[in-house]
Amino acid sequence: MGRSSEKKSEERVLLQVKVVPGSSKTAIVGFLNDTLKIKVAAAPERGKANQALVAFLAEQLGIRKKDITIVCGQTSPVKQIAIRGRPDKEVLGRLTTETGIKGREAT
Prior knowledge:
By secondary structure, this protein is α+β, with helices and mostly antiparallel strands. It has a single domain, classed as YggU-like (Conserved Hypothetical Protein Mth637, Chain: A). It has helices at residues 48-61, 88-97, and strands at 6-8, 12-20, 27-32, 35-39, 68-72, 78-84.
C-alpha cells in the first residue's frame, strides 16, 4: 500500500506537497506519484516560501490562511499540510480543476 497525499481526519485534510521555491511564478505543477508539486516564486529563506505556499493554497481553496498549517517539513521541500474547513474531495477537486492540471481523482 502506497502513501497517500491526503488523509481525512474528523476536522482536517492532510496533503503531501513538494515545494519548488524560487520559481518564476507560483503555480501548481501536478502530481508526482502521490505528492502535489507546487512552484512558488518566493525564495527559500526565513520562511518566505512557506508563507507564499500557505497564501497560495488559501487563495486557491477559498479559505483563510489560518486554516492551513504546515504539520511537518518546515525546512524541507516535501511538506505535510493540514487543511481545515473543506472536505477532502473538494480540496483535491479545487486544486486540480481550478488550476487546469490533470491530477488523480479524489477518493
